[in-house]
Amino acid sequence: MMKQLIECVPNFSEGNDMNVINQIADAIRSIEGVKLLNVDPGKATNRTVMTMVGPPAQVIEAAFAGIMKAAELIDMTKHKGEHPRMGATDVCPLIPVAGITMEETAAYAKKLGQRVGEELGIPVYLYEAAQSNEERKNLAIIRHGEYEGFAKKIMLPDWQPDYGAAVFNAKSGATVIGARDFLIAYNVNLNTKSVKRANSVAFDIREAGRVKRIGDPVSGAIAKDEHGNEIRIPGKLKGVKAIGWYIAEYGIAQVSINITNFRETPLHIVFEEANKSATDRGLRATGSELVGLIPLSAMIDAGKYFLHKQGLSSGVSEKELIHIAVKSMGLDELSPFNAEDRIIEYQLQKDSVNNKLASMTLASFANETASDSPAPGGGSIAAYIGALGISLATMVANLSAGKKGWEHRVVEFSAFAEQGQRLKDTLLHLLDEDTVAFNKIMEAFSLPKGNEEEKIARKAAIQAATKYAIEIPFKVMENVFASMEIIKAMATNGNPNSVSDAGVGALCARSAVMGAFLNVKINAASLDDKEYVKDILEKGAILEQQAISLEAEILAVVSDKIK
User: Fold this and answer.
1) Which domains occur in the chain, in start order?
2) Which residue from 4, 19, 204, 367 lies 20 to 30 Å from 239 (Cα-Cα)?
3) pLDDT of 156-187, one tens digit each?
4) Helix (H, G, I), strand (E, B), or coil: what is residue 231?
5) Among 83, 308, 332, 529, which one carries the catalytic annotation?
6) What would the pLDDT profile of 520-535 be if each residue is shown by its tens digit?
7) How much is the pTM?
8) Is 429 noted as a catalytic residue in this protein?
9) Strands (E), 158-220
């Protein structure tokens, strides 16, 4: 149940006046649910880059607030700076981070662009994934001529804005809004001080490669085609920009890299290719470092890659996958790598209390359950024992993947273990969500009920909260039942020494399904929507009977194997 997250990195044409910069930042911070991660002003460029992240709807609301404040405070007729620009908010990219596609992100960019154009009277041009016109996708092409040339450019038939009137806005200029992939800034450390050698590695891996030379590959004349253009030898990695430099602080040369599409060219592949190039040149990549933040998925994919390379199961916890990624790429060589500070999703979780129960110790959770508070209750316990059941099956899958003589089955059991980890994480989320659902009901009952309008609003809130309190334990039932197929597979085909663990997992799963159904039924009794209640109870009864039957099948397999 991955939450949708996008990043937004608006560039504002003010880098010196901190009063203006702070007001724009405060406008962004005023939107609940959005976290402003970074404010980076540049004096020479007279430009400030701000980085925010959060759920899509809230992020575009915050972006709009920032653009509106910039339009109010920045006068482009007076702006000077080293960086190319065409407006008070020059460019505003949206970047998918988690649980959302590029296409969905592009749709949000269009929604933001339309609002800016219509409500603020600022001409808006779409770019990258949000732009359907191939000739207008590139930011540099859109921005060509900059602010000073925009009054004439906007009048050209080919340069009508995507949103807003084709009228020159002298104060605010124009804004480019779009969707692009996340850019990872990344440095690979080399065991040399030579910038020349670091550049050689950079040229090997970057998409642009190097210029072709006649004769000597370093000092020879640059080869040109019949039109007089330089001939280039392309590098290995698409969407990668790189250059070598020397870092006096560490006494080493690095390959400084920008990965513009980490899904197409993953972080771990960039490290591997840089290391291979370095090795071929008599060097070695001793480690690496991230600059800024990184999406969780990039670290998870890296951890899985290196475990597969070692012939081990990748169905381990998220924490272990990150640890493997850090150690495999030496991300902690120059300074400690704190996942809570460097991974975007973890940054957001710092302010979240929704995982309070799942993060407790076993003793604390038991004590909290045994207290006089009605939550956590049976719904949370059902989700928890379901999580324990699939955790046992996941353990069997990992033990099977590591069993001597079963090396040819690593991929098979690794896949089961990864499925198990996903189900376990979902059930742990539902553990806390069940308490959230209970609290929603309590909040609804506390609403005022004085006049008729308040009574109607209160009843509607109670009904909505009650329906949510039915949906959560039903989701527990569905996910736990899905886990029983993995439990059965492990009992049937897994490491025979752990078959009893699969049996205990089945007992947990059956109890979790039945326990969650009790919560569905008790909450359904208070819901007025009788058609919904009839449907959910019928589905729940079927799931319960299927779980009971499947548990019996699994226990029969277990009993047969431990006779």
Assistant:
1) 5-179 (3.30.990.10), 184-349 (3.30.70.670), 362-561 (1.20.120.680)
2) 4
3) 999 999 999 999 999 999 999 999 988 888 89
4) coil
5) 83
6) 999 999 999 999 999 9
7) 0.74
8) no
9) 175-179, 184-190, 210-211, 213-214
